[in-house]
Design a protein that fits this description.
11 helices, Methylamine Dehydrogenase, Chain H, Immunoglobulin-like, 70 strands, transmembrane helix, 5-stranded mixed β-sheet, 1025 residues, membrane, alpha+beta, disordered N terminus, elongated, protein dimerization activity, signal, Sig_transdc_His_kin_sub3_dim/P
């Protein structure tokens, strides 16, 4: 073999290997998705140092001061009033226990922050001069600072320069780092030294290093070093023992030099390059122990401003607890997370019509503006010849498909396209929607021509069961039972095997607007529209309104994975609903469910394609899910989906009431008169933090949990005086809810007029006013009654005088005349009759004189009232009628008019019993005295009163009951009549103390007793048996 072939062949082989290596090495953009926050999004510029805190915040030391970031917004560290930092350009940052923050400045000096207070340290406090680039803390609590002119140590009371006396020979220090063994590593201008925990002298690394060296530790405990002379390499083994340098074979490779290094949880190594940009080694195990990281290392990934990084001047790196890697630049902040969705690069160039997909083989068949593609990762997409503009695709078996383009309907098999002739024109864009029929055939909706069924052999027939005025069908779904589900405008239709059509619309609870997607199984139907998403349950629909959760708006694709979970392709991205979430959609009506949203931060290009000809979500034979967007096609494998399982906490940032702002802390007392409170809070998550959602519950006002969505500010209104407990909880971007752990207590100080002493005094005064008003009113009523009684007494006396002076005297004179006349009668029989009549007349005159005397005597009859009533009853009753007389309460002196009224009422009630009760065997008379008044009850055991008389209040043409009622009412009392058919009748008269009793003291006591009975009524005292 000649010399030329011997030289050319190895070169060709080497070139081929390099090309293969370059072809097979994935880029960082293929594995990780970058979210950017530039100055335009509020990020500070010149981010030189960065730390992740346990509370979920990212702290940024910048050229403009200290900031923290919660994944949504950047906030400057709030200093206490009158406090300020010694400088604003921060190069070093350390988060220490007890909330301490240590800062190192470009101009020199260190500051310690705690609760907004600043304590500055400089040369006067023993700190070496020069720019402070790094601060570290060892387990003994000592703070170490790498200053330009030396190494400083703070022991809790003062700073000390550490140098040769402690075994560190270099007069300059540029980097300090503490590893997991609590060993301190210090990089000087030319020296690397380490100080083990518990030792007092440094050990110096025997090889010289270059300036600007940095140190990091990997997950297995190896310490790595990156410096200009030796490059980037492992310095120790997993036990912390030094590794010898690895001899390089061949020409020296271009080495990498890091500004910062970070070993992420997945084992990858991240570096911000001194040459600019970002480097990542996905698998460091491919490096031999001690081997340098070369610039052409296989698998090394680069990411610069040309790839989307905010700027090439990148320095700090940090990893959060959720697997995200953060990089700070001089023009903003970037966050990297593993891609969960994979965009198909060959299908990223899309026109207005977008792509259509159909399962095909073990992948999918994609149709778009530039023809048909067979896509089955990891194989490269393969374009079929012909350049067809496919608008409808549907599977026709494992390796076959139906396709509609501008030329008509075709059956695709491999590279072969066979035309299928139909009685109607189905050329795109006349075909509206399609669905496979589970037997290899096709259902096809055609504009103005109805719905057609194309069988496997190409025969086609129109579905005649649909109403003529139905309109065009825009959605078709073939059920596994042979039924059809159709979407027409905002209505869902079901066509069963017998051709019967059932409609579902607003009357059945389906109010999603224009329908855009349908999917069905043997027992479930899901439908989506512009206004939300719904599941058919028990003839109705459980639905999620897009107004309540916009992730469910404008869904154009619904697909199930192999586990039965549901995936929706909508305007917010891809929405995942697991079985637990679907089970919450079990009752008709609006619902809220937990969900996962995947969007551009997960690798999804764009949003769901709107107004498609087919579902924009498909599943292939391998279980992968495919989604069509307005910017192409993407897929994911749900079995490999990694969720962020870290539940976030909630932090209250501030509280504001009116023009006053309060810092959260101990339980807070708001000023008197506070009616509203604004609470600002955030979730302790950085992974897709703007997708975090919140709930709250306010004890003391409403104990129910309320949904806040992504809102990070809560306005509480209508606060009254009292104590409150605010509960807050959050879900991270993947829908994992934290515990309701944050409870913030606050109270609203009452106004003077809202305090219990004031209210008590007010109630007391109100009671006194009411009592005084009642006393004045009753006094007025008593005075009025007294006047009426006096008038009645006067009238009675006048009537008595008139009767005595006129009628009685006249009658007496007539009797005397009659006596004289009788004496002259000779007939003995006639005389006897006249004498009998005269005796009767004298008896009547005597009774009349007694009545006149009664009028003048003001009712002061002889004997107790109960005795008089008993005597009356005995005179009226037959001998075989039993009389029961009872007295309740302590007898009191009665007013004459009240006594007379009770006597008259009692006599009339007894007469009614004797006359109308029928077979009267027993009569009960009860007289009662109480503080609030006097009462009399007369009850018989007769036949009772007619119901008509009870309603009328009296018997026709009889005035006994009317007279009794009027007598009671004239004295401010009442008369009650109760009757029971076949069991008797009770007449009860009640007179108030103000008119019943003669003693003024009894009357006053009666007033208060009556007031108390109004407030606290009691059961009526029953009549004695």
């Amino acid at each position: 073999m000649s010399t030329l072939p011997r030289l050319v062949l190895p070169c060709l082989l080497m070139l081929a290997s390099l090309l293969v290596r370059a072809e097979s090495a994935p880029s960082l953009a293929d594995d990780q998705e970058l979210t950017r926050w530039s100055i335009a999004e509020g990020a500070p510029a010149d981010i030189w140092t960065m730390r992740y805190a346990a509370d979920g915040k990212l702290w940024l030391g910048t050229g403009l001061g200290l900031f923290h970031f919660d994944g949504v917004q950047f906030e400057r560290y709030a200093l206490a009033h009158g406090q300020r930092l010694p400088a604003s350009n921060i190069n070093a940052l350390l988060l220490a226990p007890q909330g301490e923050i240590w800062l190192g400045f470009h101009s020199g000096g260190v500051a310690r922050l705690r609760d907004g207070q600043v304590q500055a340290f400089g040369r006067e406090q023993g700190l070496p001069e020069g720019r402070v680039l790094r601060i570290a803390r060892t387990a003994n609590g000592h703070i170490w600072a790498a200053a330009g002119t030396g190494l400083g140590r703070y022991d809790g009371s003062r700073w000390t320069r550490v140098g040769a006396e402690a075994g560190f020979p270099d007069r300059e220090a540029y980097y300090v780092f503490v590893d997991s063994r609590d060993t301190l590593w210090v990089c000087g201008a030319r020296v690397l030294a380490s100080l083990r925990s518990g030792e007092s002298r440094f050990s110096v690394y025997r090889q010289t290093i270059g300036r600007d060296a940095v140190v990091a530790e990997d997950l297995e405990g190896r310490v790595w070093l990156s410096e200009p002379l030796g490059g980037t390499r492992a310095l120790t083994d997993v036990l912390g023992m030094p590794l010898p340098p690895v001899a390089e074979s061949g020409p020296p490779a271009r080495q990498t030099l890091a500004k910062q290094m970070l070993f992420a949880r997945d084992g990858s190594l991240w570096l911000t390059s001194a040459a600019g940009g970002l480097l990542r080694v996905p698998d460091i195990t491919r490096l031999r122990p001690g081997q340098r990281l070369a610039g052409d290392q296989p698998g090394l990934q680069r990411f610069t401003s040309q790839d989307g990084l905010m700027a090439d001047a990148a320095v700090p790196l940090a990893e959060d607890d959720e697997g995200g890697v953060w990089v700070g630049t001089n023009f903003g902040l970037g966050g990297f997370r593993p891609r969960r969705m994979h965009a198909v690069a060959a299908l990223s160039s899309v026109g207005f019509a977008g792509f259509v997909l159909a399962p095909h083989g073990s992948g999918v068949l994609a149709g778009g503006g530039d023809g048909l593609w067979v896509v089955d990762p990891p194989q490269a997409p393969r374009q079929l010849p012909g350049g067809r503009l496919a608008r409808v695709l549907a599977p026709a078996g494992t390796d076959e498909a139906w396709m509609v383009d501008t030329n008509g309907l075709f059956r695709v098999r491999g590279r072969e396209l066979r035309a299928v002739r139909l009685p109607v024109d189905v050329r795109a864009p006349l075909s509206l929607a399609s669905a496979p029929d589970h037997e290899g055939g096709l259902w096809l909706s055609v504009t103005g021509a109805g719905l057609w069924h194309v069988r496997v052999d190409g025969r086609a027939e129109r579905l005649e069961a649909l109403p003529a005025d139905l309109g065009d069908v825009q959605l078709v779904e073939a059920g596994t039972d042979g039924s059809l589900w159709l979407g027409v405008a905002d209505q869902l239709l079901r066509v069963d095997l017998q051709g019967r059509v059932l409609r579902y619309g607003r009357e059945q609870g389906l109010s999603l607007g224009y329908l855009s997607a349908i999917t069905s199984t043997d027992s479930e139907v899901f439908v989506a529209g512009h206004g939300g998403f719904a599941r058919m349950v028990r003839g109705g629909f459980a639905h999620v309104d897009a107004e309540q959760d916009d992730a469910f708006g404008s869904v154009t694709g619904i697909v199930r994975d192999e586990r039965g979970d549901l995936w929706l392709n909508g305007a917010r991205g891809v929405v995942h609903l697991d079985r637990e979430a679907l089970e919450r959609l079990s009752a008709p009506g609006p619902q809220l469910v937990d969900r996962l949203v995947l969007d551009s931060r997960d690798g999804l290009p764009g949003i769901a394609l709107q107004a498609p000809n087919a579902s924009t979500a498909q599943r292939d034979a391998k279980g992968r899910l495919w989604f069509v967007t307005n910017r192409g096609v993407a897929w994911l494998d749900p079995r490999l989906l990694q969720l962020n399982r870290r539940p976030p906490g909630v932090e209250i940032l501030s509280l504001r009431s009116g023009d006053r702002t309060f810092k959260p802390g101990q339980p807070m007392a708001l000023p008197a008169g506070t009616r509203s409170l604004t609470v600002r809070f955030t979730a302790q998550t950085l992974a897709a933090a703007d997708r975090a959602r919140f709930r709250y519950r306010l004890e003391g006002a409403d104990n129910r949990w309320q949904e806040l969505g992504g809102q990070r500010e809560l306005l509480i209104t209508n606060l009254g005086p009292g104590r409150y407990r605010l509960h807050l909880m959050a879900a991270n971007g993947d829908g994992i809810w934290g515990e309701p752990g944050l409870v913030y207590e606050f109270s609203v100080t009452p106004q003077l007029w809202q305090t219990w002493p004031f209210l008590s005094v007010l109630l007391l005064l109100l009671g006194l006013v009411v009592a005084a008003a009642y006393w004045l009113r009753t006094n007025a009523l008593e005075h009025r009654v007294a006047l009426r009684l006096e008038e009645r007494h006067g009238e009675r006396e006048r009537i008595a005088r008139e009767l005595h002076d006129t009628l009685m005297q006249g009658l007496q004179g007539l009797l005397l005349s009659f006596h004289v006349a009788v004496g002259s009668v000779v007939d003995g029989r006639l005389r006897a009759q006249l004498e009998l009549a005269l005796r009767r007349a004298e008896a009547l005159i005597t009774e009349g004189r007694d009545r006149v005397w009664a009028l003048r005597a003001s009712g002061d009859g002889d004997g107790a009232l109960d005795s008089v009533l008993g005597q009356m009853a005995r005179e009226l009753l037959q001998d075989d009628t039993r009389l029961a007389l009872s007295l309740q309460g302590e007898p009191r002196a009665l007013d004459p008019l009240a006594r007379d009224a009770l006597l008259c009422i009692g006599r009339e009630a007894m007469l009614n019993a004797v006359r109308h009760a029928g077979d009267l065997r027993r009569l009960d008379i009860a007289l009662g005295y109480a503080p609030e008044g006097c009462w009399l009850s007369v009850r018989d055991d007769g036949r009772g009163m007619d119901g008509r008389w009870m309603q009328a209040g009296a018997r026709p043409n009889h005035f006994g009951l009317t007279g009794m009622r009027e007598r009671a009412q004239q004295l401010g009392g009442e008369l009650q009549v109760q009757s029971w058919p076949g069991e008797g009748t009770e007449v009860r008269a009640e007179l108030p103390a103000q008119t019943a009793y003669a003693d003024p003291r009894d009357r006053r006591r009666g007033r208060w007793a009556a007031l108390w009975r109004k407030i606290w009524p009691r059961r009526r005292t029953p009549a004695a048996d």
